[in-house]
Amino acid sequence: MDVEKLFKEYRNWKRDMGLLEFELSRFEGVPYGDVIESLSLSQPQGERVQSSGTSDKTGKTAIIYRQVKERLDDEWFDYLIERYKNVKENVDFFEYAIRKLSGRLPEVMWDMVMEEMPWRELARKYNVSETMIGKYRKKAIAEINSLYMARADTADQYFLG
Q: Residue 112: what are its φ and ψ, rounded to 5°?
């Protein structure tokens, strides 16, 4: 597990979560133009019966349009929900891992990663040298790595046995 990459990913996860929350709170479905485009580019399915009734064609088209729109809306909403759940799971476990660090590490790493505090400010706030901040970071990386490995082992045990 590349914990240093997680430090950088955390900001992206938080941004993505905010965007997904926004999208879900204002969900209106697939735009009408996209539905029309999907209908005009798709091939007819099932048997085709030629009918001469204009109103019958209009009615069938309206029903097909509504069905396609509902299906696309459901698929889009399901995608947004699934994506949100995955991102939230990443954020929640990462924050859990930070809080479970030993000694002063939870506070120092929270300020470093979540609050994006520069090392100089961290050293001043915790009354230590920047070298010590580097040692804290290195120890935190090792502890976080072991938490992620334990999590992976638990998943492996479930799937294998």
A: -70, -50
- Looking at 8-22, 55-69, 126-140, which range is the least confident one? 55-69
The pLDDT, as a whole number, for residue 57 is: 76
| Distance separating alpha carbons of residues 160 and 128, to the nearest angstrom | 46
DSSP state for residue 76 in the 8-state scheme: H
DSSP 46: S
Give this prediction's pTM.
Answer: 0.76
Please report the DSSP string for 105-139 in residue order. Answer: HHHHHIIIIIS---HHHHHHHTTS-HHHHHHHHHH
Q: Which residues of 133-156 are buried (b: 16+ CB within 10 A; e: fewer)?
A: beebbebbbebbbebbeeeeeeee
Ordered by start, the domain boundaries in the chain are 1-86, 100-161
Residue 39 to residue 70: CA distance in whole angstroms? 13
Whether the CB-CB separation of 133 and 119 falls below 8 Å is answered with yes
